[in-house]
Automatic annotation (TrEMBL):
The chain crosses the membrane at residues 37-58, 78-99, 106-126, 132-150, 162-188, 208-229, 256-276, 296-317, 329-348, 354-378, 390-414, 426-445. GO terms for molecular function: transmembrane transporter activity. Gene3D superfamilies: MFS general substrate transporter like domains. It is found in: Membrane. It is a multi-pass membrane protein. One of its GO terms (cellular component) is membrane. Keywords: Membrane, Transmembrane, Transmembrane helix, Transport. This is Major facilitator superfamily (MFS) profile domain-containing protein. Residues 40-447 form the Major facilitator superfamily (MFS) profile domain.
Length: 466
């Protein structure tokens, strides 16, 4: 097997293409992709979509919930944001340990069932406190899905097909966001008539409770779909018998790759969150668009450009990796970060019309979907017994950076640097600063990513059979 060259990054495995590497490396999937593997990806896509529907449908029921419990916008904001997000983030690390210790099928099943039961509890809540606790449990249950899904898919796909597979299931975030508005709107429209009479088992409920109950019952039923995935064996500890010591050694040996990967992609996430949080305000405040028009435009961009970007980025990186470019994952998004810094920096500072801003945002939304590619290279580089914890740590960091840094940086730049109510220059500066810094980090880490990927596809590195 060819070694990684000093220049970087292209290797030519003896005997043919990268699929032979996959067949040798027991820790990464199979020699070829079967219809069953794609069926599992489709099922996971449905579960990710369901998760986002459960997560976001509350935003359509603000006024009915406020009326039921007599709460103000501040407490409603807690239900929509921190109640879910804090427990989702807190739960990431322990859920990563669970993923490493127990079979992914059962881990996903119990996670989906748990958050679906918590969603049902949201529908049965009789007070603000009960609804708050139920929302926290929804966040905790959903924390298991992403690291468990990545780990499961990594066992079904060879390395050169993994970025596309994980990108497809990651696109469920975009599908779920759109579906939450469509399905939620339909359910809410019908909920008043449904709630007029007592429901079987649940009794008399209000219209907003019907939405939660319907989503929760659907989730309990859909959880069983994960058992169509093939069984796997879990050793319950590291294959070399060193447990956490082995994890610590892996982190030390790959520290430059992990630091550049974690920080680079986290800054891309912060860049994305910041623009997404404040672009609607920019369009309404500076260009006079109404909230319905803004919502429709941005939803259309998210569904078309966002989903297309996930699929394209995964396909393109897999194609480069299959040709022997072992640094393909970080190299691609280093170039994307630089491109977005330029496009966003100039586009939002010079964009004179709402149409120009939306088009600029659409181009960026197509380029920037990174989670599938970022997750894929972690699965390739990480031994199977550590994937859950490494993935969970990355998920925790990039979501925290996105939530905490992205929107606040735009506000800081607008208030403290530009001292203007026009958010365009602040968003432009955010794109330029975060995009260029992310590009530098990912470019610096690409050689280390190539070395980590080389070790990850080396059959002598880890022997694990799914």
């Amino acid at each position: 097997m060819g070694a990684c060259t000093r220049a970087g990054t292209r290797t030519k495995p003896r005997g043919g293409r990268m699929s032979r590497l996959a067949s040798a490396a027991g820790g990464i999937g199979a020699t070829r992709v079967t219809w069953r593997a794609w069926m599992v990806v489709f099922i996971l896509l449905l579960l990710v979509t369901l998760a986002f529907i459960d997560r976001m449908s509350i935003s359509l029921m603000v006024d009915p919930i406020k009326a039921s419990f007599g709460i103000d916008d501040f407490r409603m904001g807690i239900l929509q944001g921190p109640a879910f997000a804090v427990f989702f983030l807190i739960g990431s690390l322990p859920m990563g340990w669970i993923v490493d210790r127990y079979p992914a099928r059962w881990t996903i099943y119990f996670g989906v069932t748990a958050w679906s039961l918590a969603t049902i509890a949201c529908g049965l809540a009789g007070s603000f406190t009960e609804l708050l606790i139920a929302r926290c449990l929804v966040g905790l249950g959903e924390a298991v899905l992403q690291p468990a899904s990545w780990s499961l898919v990594a066992r079904l796909f060879p390395p050169q097909r993994l970025a596309l597979a994980i990108s497809v299931l990651s696109s469920g975030a975009q599908v779920g966001a759109a579906a939450s508005y469509v399905m939620g709107g339909v359910l809410i429209a019908q909920a008043t008539a449904i709630a007029a009479d007592p429901l079987p088992v649940f009794g008399q409920v209000e219209s907003w409770q019907v939405v939660f109950l319907a989503c929760g019952v659907l989730g309990v039923a859909m959880a069983f779909l994960i058992f169509t995935a093939p069984r796997e064996r879990k050793a319950g500890a590291s294959s070399d018998g060193t447990g956490n010591a082995g994890l610590g050694r892996f982190i030390r040996d790959n520290r430059v790759f992990l630091v550049c990967h974690f920080l680079g992609f986290s800054l891309l996430c912060a860049m994305t969150y910041g623009a997404a949080a404040w672009l609607p305000t920019l369009l309404m405040r500076s260009h006079g668009l109404d909230v319905r028009t803004v919502g429709t435009l941005l939803a259309a961009v998210a569904v078309t450009a966002g989903i297309g970007g996930f699929v394209f980025n995964g396909w393109w990186v897999d194609r480069a990796f299959a040709r022997g470019r072992k640094d393909a994952h970080l190299r691609h998004f280093a170039l994307v970060g630089a491109a977005v810094a330029i496009i966003g920096g100039f586009g939002f500072s010079l964009g004179a019309t709402a149409v120009a801003l939306v088009l600029c945002f659409a181009v960026i939304q197509f380029l920037q979907p990174f989670s599938g590619v970022a997750g894929a290279v972690l699965q390739i580089a990480t031994p199977p017994e550590y994937r859950g914890r490494i993935s969970a740590a990355f998920i925790l960091l990039y979501n925290s950076a996105g939530i905490a840094l992205g929107p606040s940086l735009v506000v800081f730049l607008s208030d403290r640097v530009f001292a203007s109510s026009d958010l365009g220059p602040a968003i432009a500066a955010s794109y330029a600063l975060l995009g260029s810094t992310a590009a530098a980090l990912l470019w610096a880490g690409r050689r280390h990513a190539a070395a980590a990927a080389q070790r990850g596809t080396d059959p002598a590195t880890h022997q694990d059979s799914p």
